[in-house]
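Revision sheet: structure tokens.
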Amino acid sequence: MRAFLDSLAVLSFLGTVLLLFAFSTLLGMVRQLQSKLVQAQAAVPAAPAVRSVARFASDDGLPTFVLVVSEHCPNCRERSRRLADTAGPDRPWHAVVLGSADRCAEWVAGSQVVPVIDAALVGTVAVGATPSLVKYSPDGTEEWRRVVGSDEDLDAFLAVSPAERSNA
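Predicted:
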């Protein structure tokens, strides 16, 4: 009986040694994959700190405000209509509504706001939430971006005076 127990002890010891070798091999494979991931991430160029969109450049020296909207967003529809009410030829800026569906263009139809329906451009601008207002300098370089939660926010970002708010 003693010999049987001794042989079981030796076999369990050998099994433990084999498991240690297997874990060591797996750990080596994991570290190799991690190093490949780190190399791949280092090879990806970082996103530029400042984005430029030539389509939003203007020849007249005025900035362009781009309201990025989504077709199923009720707030987007309301902010688009507010922008359409606010925009005009007397403003010191251009106004654009950027969306990926034709329905978004209907919200600003008949106004001074230029509708741009381009899903690829929406991806290029890449806002985190809609509706968002992005200001572009006359050369098409992004100056800032803000999420627009209300008409008052939109007016403040566009610097619309209180008297103009009540008339709109």
